[in-house]
Write a structure and sequence with these properties.
This protein folds into two domains: about 60 residues; about 130 residues, Lysozyme, CATH 1.10.530. It is about 55% helix and about 5% strand. It is elongated. The chain is mainly alpha-helical. The protein has a three-stranded antiparallel β-sheet with strand order 2-1-3, covered by helices on one side.
Length: about 190
């Protein structure tokens, strides 16, 4: 086997390893992958493009393996209530980190952290059932979007602090937890949209 053929085979193997790592890496560890070929025909791969010959070959992807088992339900309910599925996923990530058995200090339950009274109003019989919980949460969020004329930060704040708190302050309430909640949901929403 010629040296050039060996280099191409080795580089192809290295590329396959990089792509494989990229596909199985947990969230937050992925980055853009760049490549360039040097004067000897050796192909280089990097996530830090210091050489001007570097070309972007793989764009960073944001996916969350924890959400994968709920993606079909998120997609189904998002379509049903016409709410962006990336937004629903972001709310679930911040609310429960995709734990369908999550219970907050104040008693919110399930993936979308429905309060028992809210779950009852939404006719959610079992808030720990992912399908019921997501449907109830998405339906409630759609109501908030309509209530606040599609003002996303206000609807997100109302999901966390309640619509009366948003009305009282005529904006995002000055509660530290709500301010952080809105920022985190919007951050993950942008990431999931990519």
């Amino acid at each position: 086997m010629s040296r050039r053929c060996f280099l191409i085979t080795a580089n192809l193997f290295l590329f396959i390893l990089i792509v494989g790592f990229f596909l199985i890496s947990p969230p937050g560890t992925l980055a853009h992958i760049y490549s360039y070929t040097d004067e000897n025909g050796v192909v280089h791969f990097t996530n830090v493009p210091t050489d001007p010959r570097c070309k972007l070959i793989i764009r960073e992807r944001h996916f969350d393996p924890r959400s994968m088992k709920f993606d079909h339900l998120i997609s189904k309910m998002s379509k049903k209530y016409m709410v962006d599925d990336s937004l629903v996923k972001a709310i679930i990530r911040v609310e429960s980190n995709f734990n369908p058995r999550a219970v907050s200090k104040v008693g919110a339950q399930g993936l979308m952290q429905l309060m028992p009274e809210t779950a009852e109003e939404l006719k959610v019989k079992n808030p720990f059932n992912p399908e019921e919980n997501i449907e109830g949460g998405v339906r409630y969020f759609k109501y908030l979007l309509n209530r606040f004329k599609n003002n996303l930060p206000l609807a997100i704040a109302a999901y966390n602090a309640g619509e009366n708190a948003v009305k009282k302050y005529n904006g995002i309430p000055p509660y530290d937890a709500t301010q952080k909640f809105v920022k985190m949901v919007l951050k993950y929403f942008r990431e999931y949209k990519k």
